[in-house]
Amino acid sequence: MEADIQACFVNIPHDLILNRIAERVADGNILRLIREFLSAGALEGFEFHPTTSGTPQGGVISPLLANIVLDLLDQRLTQSGLRFVRYADDFVVLCRSHALAKQALAFVDTVLRSELGLSLSPSKMKIVSFLKGFDFLGFHVSKRRISIREKSIEKLKARVRLLTTRSHNLCQEVFRELNRVLIGFAHYFAAPFASVADQFRLLDHWIRARIRSMKFKGISRGYNRRWPNKLIVHLGLVSLYGLQT
Fold it and tell me: What residues contact residue 108 under an 8 Å CB cut-off, 6+ apart?
């Protein structure tokens, strides 16, 4: 079962956050500062919006506050004997059968509603088989292997397209910007547990084609001979496949 908490950072009740923190922190000054942080409101343009629930979007301690609250969900899942993985408001619960997964889903929904004042996001709530696999934190996890999910690949391609528009000139700045994107992508997805070599090769091939079409303002197989891979590497473009080792 994979699920996502609906508008988690927006809907967490302030009293619940403060009560959970008070269980660990006895300093009244700290609690007062956190209360003021939560109720400070937000300024959008010239319009002020008060905040009566949730943690401020982009706040430096917002993820910490949300995790302190969601730790209660972790405790309930552990107490029930369920195996799970959670990162912020995204989580996966592992069950041995479809029937057990439905029970786990009902249990999670009950805990969220009755104890945390939250609910599951209907559009991101799924019960899937391990053979078919599921997406989690940018990866696709299945019985066969762990790979990069298609949506993550499309996001990378969208960023590369913006940097390699044919109407723009190909210069060293393009390589620098591409390298920043590619190095970050590789460092995240080239994990020891993932099998991404084939996907990295295909992406490298696609990115080099974008570079050639940017250079020559068009697409032609003959450009592969005029601008071989070694030349593109010599000019400074990193390779996803090369970064995984």
Answer: 1, 3, 73, 77, 93, 120
Residue 25, token pair as written in the block: 């922190």
What digits encode the pLDDT tens for the residues 163-179? 999 888 888 899 999 99
Which tens digits make up the pLDDT trace of 12-50?
999 999 999 999 888 889 999 999 888 877 767 777 777
Q: How many CB atoms are located within 10 Å of the residue 146 CB? A: 16
Q: Give whole-number Cα distances, 205 to 26, 145, 178, 201, 208, in Å.
A: 57, 22, 14, 6, 5
φ/ψ of residue 142, rounded to 5:
-145, 175
Long-range CB contacts for residues 128-134, cutoff 8 Å, separation at least 24? 128/1, 128/2, 129/98, 134/2, 134/92
**Could you please report the per-residue DSSP string of 112-152?**
IIIIIS--B-GGG-B---TTT-EEETTEEE-SS-EEE-HHH
Nearest partner of 207 among 184, 234, 229, 235, judged by Cα = 229
